[in-house]
Amino acid sequence: MSTAVTNIGELVTWEEGRPLRHAAAFVVDAGRVAWVGDAARVPAADEVLDAGGAAVIPGFVDSHTHLVFAGDRATEFEARMAGRRYSAGGIRSTVAATRAAGTDALAALLASRVAELRRQGTTTLETKSGYCLDVAGEERSLRLARDVTGETTFLGAHVVPEGWDPDAYVELVTGEMLAACAPHARWIDVFCETGAFGADQARTVLAAGVAAGLLPRIHANQLGFGPGVQLACELGAAAADHCTFLSDADVAALADTGVVAGLLPGVEFSTRQPYPDARRLLEAGVRVAIATDCNPGSSFTSSMPFCIALAVRELGMTPLEALHAGTQGGAWSLRREDVGHLRVGARADFVVLDAPSHLHLSYRPGVPLVGRVLRAGRPA
Ligand code: NIG
Ligand code: FE
Prior knowledge:
Layout: E1 2-6, E2 10-15, E3 18-21, E4 24-29, E5 32-38, E6 47-50, E7 55-58, E8 60-62, H1 74-81, H2 91-100, H3 103-119, E9 122-128, H4 135-146, E10 151-157, H5 166-181, E11 187-192, H6 199-211, E12 215-216, E13 218-220, H7 228-235, E14 239-242, H8 248-257, E15 260-263, H9 265-271, H10 278-283, E16 288-290, H11 304-314, H12 319-325, H13 328-333, E17 350-353, H14 360-363, E18 370-375, E19 378-379
Residues 66, 90-91, 94, 191, 219, 222, 267, 293, 295-298 line the site of N-(iminomethyl)-L-glutamic acid.
């Protein structure tokens, strides 16, 4: 079954040297982009999808979320807006709620969050464990996550749980917990930060994950300058996420190694921290992704359009750069060739905006501009 998508106001494909096209069309066949070109030359297809003059963009790739959790931390957010600082310790209250949740209830919460992301145009998402911090709970979280995405991340090293000696906990994470979780995960992650795990512990966790066949990514440099970004570069991680506090050496290392800097502006919005400087990264040649970090503590938004608007207003990106970071950049972060763009061969994941141009995503912040969402050519 093939579909010709026509009457497109502006088509964003991220083709080399030609990121967006006007008077263009494309054809989807068997869930993939089979042809892209001038609307006047569109080949015959089984059916036509008329975009009504609207912009068509690749589906968003949210490369960093924490969707498997119970409870919320709205009162912690309220206290922060009254002046309290964010700290890694708040994670433990979500751990208590998640441990207490029944599996069906947790699965239902996860499903409703995934639906919320999809409605806002996200067609590929990564999600993590990290809110149980015991062997059975982390394994359960990843089994549930595996049902909604192939991009699952084992984050047993989110924070040291109540009552544990840090070294003993790292031993658990890299031993029994990793053995239980690795079969359900693609990625290994660690929160390398004051109040969570130091450089040596983080290196131990990531190395153990790699030895178990997982690919490394990291939470780094969120709350202050620190060793996480350098560690990511040393280990050849796919991504270093947060990157809020970076030295010149950190920026140079990211540029040299090609490690993707994942910027999560919902965090700075929700914690009243200074925003990272995307301009500095782009000018240094660093590959940048934008993601929501959807989680109950530091960023309870599931909206890629909101994060893209923040990236433009607060991180110094142009609207086109921010859209690129939320699509192609996310695909780089997840080492995916098949998503994040609409070049020939891509999975046909796309959004028909209720707007004539991608500019409206940041020009009209907070407005629901995501019209139709298609994944592999079908309604998502
Ligand atoms: O990415 N930084 C660590 N983890 C999450 C926050 C988790 C929480 O506060 O519950 C983050 O910001
Ligand atoms: Fe996170």
